[in-house]
Write a structure and sequence with these properties.
Number of domains of chain B: 1
Order of helices and strands of chain A: EHEHHEHEHHEHEHEHEHEHEEHEEHEHEH
Helix content of chain A: 40-55%
Radius of gyration of chain B: 18 Å
Radius of gyration of chain A: 21 Å
Mean pLDDT of chain A: 97
Oligomer: heterodimer
Low-confidence stretches of chain B: none
Number of strands of chain A: 15
Largest interface: A-B, 40 and 32 residues
CATH superfamily of the largest domain in chain A: Thiamin diphosphate (ThDP)-binding fold, Pyr/PP domains
Low-confidence stretches of chain A: none
CATH class of the largest domain in chain A: Alpha Beta
Structural class of chain A: alpha/beta
Distance between the termini of chain A: 54 Å
């Protein structure tokens, strides 16, 4: 029977991890996401499912623990917020370079530097364009509700193992801290050692057995030709991901003259803005990218042929708007509206921005 | 008598460990890495734990250690091997997990990771090669470079007022309740090689009992970095490194 609870976004990340058979969580406290590790420590999943939970000495250590655990073919994860995610970039590029699966949650706060502990969406570039050094991508999921915080944990692990690629849940202090009704997932047992050997024994450090050569987890290739080949292999993988894994939600877009593009908490605010604008007679729709990498570029390209303009609403100085512009490619105006530093836009501000920047400007 | 008459099982006095691969090692002549690799391989073979062993290699000269020992390897980022090993051991407690790290890796960039892994008493073996120099990048000053020792980034000799004193990290590690066995060894003579092997064996046996962290420093030579031939390197090590990094057990 389905189990419903009123929970914080951060808390449900922890609950979903336990229920989806996660093997290990490695973290370091930082506001506004500390409830994730706090919930896990309170729940003691090592007694229930055998899941390992460890508070590391730093974000750097935590992501390298994830690197080690992912190398074993285990379902491992970490979480942090913006300054901590910056520290994890080294580990993330190694994990991407070694083609390992893992889940990273970024409950974004405003920056740069220590910035603020209030919510923001200013880590978009870092999340979707690479973040660390070298040519690589994370798969980036953007939940817009506590329910999606729950759902994307299991889904994130599925994608991570399907493509052997790190997956990031890019959320923010609004979704992390707010409480909503959530339908919890069914329990899935953790994989047994035998199952892991069967599924991932060809690459994971499960221990050399007589039936296979020894495995090496590494991102090092000193031969330039072979490194280039590997880079092309990664590009091919990212292209497959772009082909198969784009997710988005289109609300009131069919008859729309204007499209608001927004993800995560901004999409919730924008949804209300759409209602207000429609009451005023403005035909506006909301496109909510659910995957930020891969980005719903084709959908925007198609919409650009029939609408009069796009407004990207995000709590940043204008990051995702660049991907909207790339997709629209000059066909119609694309503008950005955002609040910064932990400030959250109101639906009325969004409607006003749409009128001023797109409708009147035309 | 033909040479073939001598090659008989009963005459066998030395055999390459089955854990060592046939790849030609990239290490310089006189480098201690090859000897320590061999000792670790022999211990793994003698304990019959090839299938249970997961090794973590560092960044430094031994970054390619995974080419030489046929166990599953995880190549870590610079200094992060203890964090990588922590997760492997915690997620697979029945495994023998060891890190193999140089002085730049363990005692400079990875200081936080090694101190905290040892403080938590992670049930891993740490093999720490201390040759007082960054070999792979071409002979720069290491945290363990001796006072007055010339390197490419301390060309007039290490000035402790500017660069601080050489770090005796093994002494720090020995203070931590999480460590069970902490020792400092070398491989410059046959006797030292035998003692070092005994220490490595003890560390692996201890960790098999799921006791605390096992830490073995091997004071080592770097002929290329020190710009000395292998024989002179050993002599220089005995004269200069051993007084500052004295051999023997610090704990356990």
């Amino acid at each position: 029977m389905a189990e419903y609870r009123l929970m914080k976004g951060n808390e449900v990340i922890a609950e979903a991890a336990i229920r989806c058979g996660c093997d290990g969580y490695f973290g370091y406290p930082i506001t506004p996401q500390s409830e994730i590790m706090e919930t896990l420590m309170l729940r003691k999943p090592w007694e229930e499912t055998g899941m390992v939970v460890l508070q590391a000495e730093s974000e750097v250590a935590a992501i390298n623990m994830v690197y080690g655990g992912a190398g074993c073919g285990k379902k491992v994860m970490t979480s942090s917020s913006s300054p901590g995610i910056s520290l994890k970039q080294e580990g993330l590029t190694y994990i991407a370079g070694a083609e390992l699966p893992c889940l990273v949650v970024n409950v974004v706060r405003g920056g740069p530097g220590l910035g603020t502990i209030q919510p923001a969406q200013s880590d978009y570039f870092q999340a979707v364009k690479g973040g660390g050094h070298g040519d690589y991508h994370l798969i980036v999921l953007a939940p817009a509700s506590v329910q999606e915080m729950n759902d994307f944990v299991d889904e994130g692990f599925d994608l991570a193992f399907k493509y052997r690629n790190p997956v990031m849940i890019l959320t923010d202090g609004v979704i992390g801290q707010m409480m909503e009704k959530v339908k919890l997932s069914e329990y899935k047992p953790r994989w047994t050692e035998e199952e892991i050997k069967k599924m991932h024994g060809s690459w994971a450090t499960t221990g050399k057995s007589p039936d296979r050569d020894y495995n090496i987890i590494t991102s090092l290739e000193l031969d330039s030709g072979r490194q280039e080949q590997f880079n092309h292999k990664l590009i091919a993988k990212y292209n497959t991901i772009k082909e198969n894994e784009v997710r988005y939600e289109a609300i009131n877009c069919d008859d729309a003259d204007y499209i608001i593009v927004a993800y995560g908490s901004s999409s919730r605010i924008s949804q209300k803005a759409v209602t207000i604008a429609r009451e005023k007679g403005i035909k506006v729709g909301l496109l909510r990218p659910i995957t930020l990498f891969p980005y719903p570029t084709k959908v925007i390209q198609e919409m650009a042929n029939r609408v009069k303009g796009f407004l990207a609403v995000e709590m940043s100085a204008g990051q995702m708007v660049e991907d909207v512009r790339l997709a629209v490619n000059g066909k119609v105006p694309v503008e950005h509206y955002g609040r910064l530093g932990g400030m959250i836009p109101t639906p009325n501000e969004v409607v006003a921005a749409l009128e001023e920047k797109i409708i009147k400007a035309k | 008598m033909d040479v073939k008459d001598i090659i008989k099982p009963e005459n066998l006095v030395y055999k390459k460990s089955s854990i060592l691969t046939d790849k030609v090692m990239h290490y310089c002549p006189g480098c201690s890495h090859g000897v320590v690799h061999k000792l670790v391989a022999e211990v793994i073979e003698e304990m019959n734990i090839q299938e249970q062993t997961i090794a973590v290699s560092p960044v430094g000269c031994s970054v390619l250690a995974y080419n030489y020992l046929s166990v599953d390897w995880h190549e870590a980022a610079h200094g992060r091997a203890p964090a990588v090993a922590t997760a492997i051991k915690r997620l697979m407690p029945e495994k023998y997990v060891f890190t193999y790290q140089g002085d730049g890796d363990l005692a400079s960039i990875g200081t936080a990771e090694i101190i905290h892994a040892c403080n938590r008493g992670e049930k891993i073996v740490v093999i720490f090669i201390n040759n007082g120099i960054y070999g792979m990048t071409g002979g720069q000053m290491a945290p363990t470079t001796l006072e007055g020792m010339a390197t490419s980034t301390s060309p007039y000799g290490r000035d402790v007022k500017m660069a601080g004193h050489p770090l005796k990290i093994t002494e720090l590690i020995a203070q931590l309740p999480g460590t069970e066995y902490v020792t400092r060894q070398a491989v410059h003579t046959p006797a030292a090689v035998r003692k070092c092997k005994k220490a490595i064996l003890k560390a692996f046996q201890n960790v098999g009992q799921n006791n605390g962290t096992q830490f073995i420093e091997v004071v080592s030579t770097c002929s290329s970095g020190w710009k000395l031939n292998p024989v002179k390197s050993n002599e220089w090590m005995v004269e200069n490194m051993f007084p500052y990094y004295p051999l023997g057990d610090l704990k356990g």
